Amino acid sequence: MTDPQDTAIQPGADLATSGPRRVIQLGETRYTLLGTAHVSAESADDVRALIRSGEFDAVAIELCDSRHHSLDNPDALNNQDLFEIFRQGKAGMVAASLALGAFQQRVAEQSGIEPGAEMRAALEESRQAELPLLLIDRDVGVTLKRIYHNVPWWQRFSLFSGLLGSVLSRQDVSAEEIERLKEGDVLESTFSEFAAESETLYTPLISERDRYMVLRLAEEAPPGRYRHVLVVIGAGHLKGMAEEFETPLPEAPTAEREALEETPPPSKLWRALPWLVTVLVLTGFAIGFSRNTELGWQLVGEWFLINGVLSAAATLVALAHPLTVAATFFAAPLTSLNPTIGAGFVAAGVELWLRKPKVRDFSTLRHDVTELKGWWRNRVSRTLLVFMLATLGSAAGTWVAGFRIAGALFGSGAA
């Protein structure tokens, strides 16, 4: 790619906008970076005015495929098979998406402005003007995973518990939070207080995405493909993306872009851990029976009781159906010895069979999850809770029962 030149802001001659702009000239193509506020009616008006000016022949926006699909089709979850979501291990991401959506809804109710209105305006106006629409942001799931892997393990719990607390709180959204939303999206504003002080968090959340979006433009709208591209981004990305444009970009940006989508695979030890636990527990049973039959059956009984009770109690907290609770009690001790299937999967499957979500559960889902009790009232979100809490209960039961077996075999009172 050729070296960039910052030029005067010229689109639409004297069109004024409320947000900042930078214009980058690369060869025959001009890129107008429009910094928007994600909670601002003025930013949405800016987007409409610029697209309607006729100055642009392509529009790029700070959205990924999944967020674009959610914004363009807010009822998309209605058409998804919940059982497949659990089978594919996507329950956590769906729950996180609902939690972030709940935060957006609170902001909308308090401010009267729907976050992301400027992106919705870009979708509508580009479609009406029949302009190519380029989605340039990295998938939100990849960003969350890279955040998770980038921060030290001892900070992960406080980080995500803070995220969960902020999006589920029923307190009014503070003026400071709304101001942060004017610079970045919901994810950025939620993590901003951490990111400001943590390079390990700032890198995957902000700077990597600055680079990623410029690389996507290099792929989808390289110099010469379009005459003038409008790039709609949060104002917090404007400076970083402009700086990325000032450095020569690779002729083949795909490899670098794909590298920014990678997440470190689990370590061999982490992948082997469930099987190691299974081997250790079964070995414990064998040692117990080798000493005497009574001890062996005592260990088996304690394994089933501890694992079953903790898992069943967790589903009870989720207000699962009584038969789901009973099924989890009997399934958890067995699934804990079979790493290919989890107690949460069994619990969610039984709950779906007994309490299949109705149309109204999907239609009210996004509103219900804006308050804590709504997660239990709605059958869709409650099934997600059943899955996650049963999984946590089974994990706790495995460790508690495992240490109990070790104590019985090798403790000071062991024969």
UniProtKB/TrEMBL annotation:
Coiled coil (UniProt feature): none
Xref: CDD domains: TraB_PrgY-like
Transmembrane segments annotated in the record for this chain: 272-291, 303-330, 336-354, 384-410
Keyword Transmembrane: yes
Keywords of this entry: Membrane, Transmembrane, Transmembrane helix
Highest taxon above the source species: Bacteria
InterPro entries: TraB/PrgY/GumN_fam, TraB_bac, TraB_PrgY-like
UniProt xrefs under Pfam families: TraB_PrgY_gumN
Name assigned to this protein: TraB/GumN family protein
